[in-house]
């Protein structure tokens, strides 16, 4: 690949059988892939690099070991500066806290902001931060053994890095979201599929990853101009009115439709051959 992908807490691979696909794996299996500050900062770097890498057109995110991620490493967080006693007045302490939360939120949003489609393949425990992370992705799939939960109320706080903002828009069911967020109860693969949180359920971790890679490969075979534009417009339209979305699409495509990819795709269909597209 054109860039160096060497990270401490994440592995990035490029399977030869899946051109233009990157496989990112959370790699802290001895701690159930629980996140601490250095990990979420590193994850932002991973997705920013992949976003700009013209050799990458789709990304699969999974977890090593027995869990996708058990969420926040509470022990590490409790010994951090935010939970240390200090003599700051409440306003100044709140300012520090707000900045820290905003930084954490931005690291999760890096997944959503990534220009390339991100498919999350979840297995085992997928708790707390796992929900924040997966709702920032584009497609979610899971294994039959997965155990989901929005766990934040169990540790005395409201989920603050994406779940409460994104999950209702993913599933379109505020009643169900309030139930799982207010109770922190565990739910499984079949319930997640029924409410639309995940797209599909697979037999085990490896089958889930394989399914994710196949989906990514299919996406990567399309025009990168079309795929990246589609992700951008869908995300924009989710947060704006229909009329705003139509206007934004018109502005976007006034530039994007000038690509040679349109004629390449149309001709390949007429000639019954697989099209190839230049890097973007």
UniProtKB/TrEMBL annotation:
Pfam families the UniProt entry points to: ECH_1 (PF00378)
Annotated GO biological process: fatty acid beta-oxidation
GO cellular component assignments: mitochondrion; peroxisome
Family per record: Belongs to the enoyl-CoA hydratase/isomerase family.
InterPro entries: ClpP/crotonase-like_dom_sf (IPR029045), Ech1-like (IPR045002), Enoyl-CoA_hydra/iso (IPR001753), Enoyl-CoA_hydra_C (IPR014748)
Name listed for the protein in its UniProt record: Enoyl-CoA hydratase
Pathway where it operates: Lipid metabolism; fatty acid beta-oxidation
UniProt keyword terms in alphabetical order: Acetylation, Fatty acid metabolism, Isomerase, Lipid metabolism, Peroxisome
Subcellular compartments: Peroxisome
GO molecular function: delta(3,5)-delta(2,4)-dienoyl-CoA isomerase activity
Transmembrane segments: none
């Amino acid at each position: 690949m054109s860039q160096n992908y060497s990270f401490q807490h994440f592995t990035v691979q490029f399977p030869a059988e899946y051109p233009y696909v990157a496989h990112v794996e959370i790699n802290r299996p001895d701690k159930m892939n629980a996140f601490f500050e250095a990990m979420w900062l590193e994850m932002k770097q991973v997705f920013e690099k992949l976003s700009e890498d013209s050799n990458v057109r789709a990304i699969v995110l999974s977890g090593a070991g027995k869990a996708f991620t058990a969420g926040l490493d509470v022990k590490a967080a409790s010994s951090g500066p935010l939970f240390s006693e200090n003599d700051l007045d409440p306003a100044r302490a709140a300012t520090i806290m707000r900045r820290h939360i905003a930084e954490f939120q931005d690291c999760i949003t890096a997944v959503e902001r990534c220009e390339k489609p991100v498919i999350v393949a979840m297995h085992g425990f997928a708790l707390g931060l796992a929900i924040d992370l997966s709702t920032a992705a584009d497609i979610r799939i899971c294994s039959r053994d997965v155990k989901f939960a929005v766990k934040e109320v169990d540790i005395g706080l409201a989920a603050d890095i994406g779940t409460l903002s994104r999950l209702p828009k993913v599933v379109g069911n505020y009643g169900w979201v309030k139930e799982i967020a207010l109770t922190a109860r565990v739910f499984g693969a079949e319930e997640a599929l029924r409410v639309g949180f995940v797209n599909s359920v697979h037999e085990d971790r490896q089958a889930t990853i394989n399914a994710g890679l196949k989906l990514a490969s299919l996406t990567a075979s399309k025009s990168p101009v079309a795929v990246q534009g589609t992700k951008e417009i869908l995300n924009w339209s989710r947060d704006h009115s229909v009329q705003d979305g139509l206007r934004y699409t018109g502005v976007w495509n006034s530039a994007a439709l000038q690509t040679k990819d349109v004629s390449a795709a149309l001709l390949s269909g007429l000639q019954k051959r697989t099209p190839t597209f230049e890097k973007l």
